[in-house]
Design goal:
The chain starts with a helix and ends with a helix. By secondary structure, the protein is α+β, with helices and mostly antiparallel strands. It folds into two domains: 78 residues, no CATH class; 97 residues, Cation efflux protein, cytoplasmic domain (Alpha-Beta Plaits), CATH 3.30.70.1350. The chain is built from six helices and five strands. The strands form two sheets. A three-stranded mixed β-sheet has the order 3-4-5, covered by helices on one side. The radius of gyration is 45 Å and the shape is elongated.
């Protein structure tokens, strides 16, 4: 319906601008505008009259069919019942509660993405009367057990829609599983190689102490003096 609304606005703006220009010129200079418009129509009438009748008829039918189809599409889009953006919550007493379909989609995506093996999830919700239909496109990694993953997805979908949101499901949830390559951001890089090399241990060698010999020399000199005495 956004396309129809935008188209309506564009058409209304164009028609209003053209009407402003045409009506302003017509009311300010009616004699010139009417004479010019009449002469233009006469010229086109003479030109079309000189065309071969079969060519004129075929061209007219083709243009009419294209315009009729375009206008019929616009009419269908205008009178078609817009898709409901809200869903009726069934498990409510004493009042009426509705929930937006975008909120349901966000909640399903939040519940389904953490499941093991799931890379991406795209839920789609559509109202069908007082019930809702659920369709999920899930991308799984290589080596994932597809039947087990599909069962988990369906159980979570049913739990979220019926227990958490109080909605009624029309039929059964549909899950489409595709095996995809995980993005590079999800692949853990290999651990870096250690560049540390242990340095060879160097033992400290202390020089011999010279102070140990000096007392002996003093002792020798002392002994000599005692002998002389």
């Amino acid at each position: 319906m956004k396309f129809v609304t935008t188209l309506n606005r564009v058409v209304i703006v164009i028609v209003c601008l053209a009407s402003i220009a045409a009506l302003t010129a017509l009311f300010l200079l009616p004699q010139i505008v009417l004479i010019a418009a009449g002469q233009w129509m006469l010229d086109w009438g003479r030109y079309i009259q000189n065309i071969d009748p079969w060519v004129r008829l075929g061209t007219g039918v083709a243009i009419a069919v294209v315009i009729d189809i375009a206008l019929a599409i616009v009419i269908i889009l205008e009178v078609r019942r817009p898709r409901s953006r809200f869903l009726r919550v069934q498990q409510v007493e004493g009042g009426i509660a509705n929930i937006n379909t975008d909120s349901v989609v966000e909640l399903l995506q939040h519940r389904l993405e953490p499941l093991p093996g799931i890379i991406r999830v795209t839920p789609k919700i559509r109202a069908k009367g007082n019930r809702v239909t659920a369709w999920v496109d899930a991308g799984v990694a290589h080596g994932t057990n597809v039947p087990q993953t599909a069962n988990q997805l369906i159980k979570v979908i049913q739990s979220v829609l019926t227990e958490e949101l109080g909605l009624q499901i029309a039929g059964q949830p549909e899950v489409q599983v595709t095996v995809v390559q995980p993005p590079s951001s999800m692949i853990a890089p290999p651990p870096p190689r250690s560049t540390f090399q242990p340095e060879p241990s160097v033992r400290s060698v202390e020089p011999p102490a010279d102070d140990a010999a000096e007392p002996a020399a003093l002792d020798w000199s002392g002994d000599g003096e005692h002998d002389k005495a």
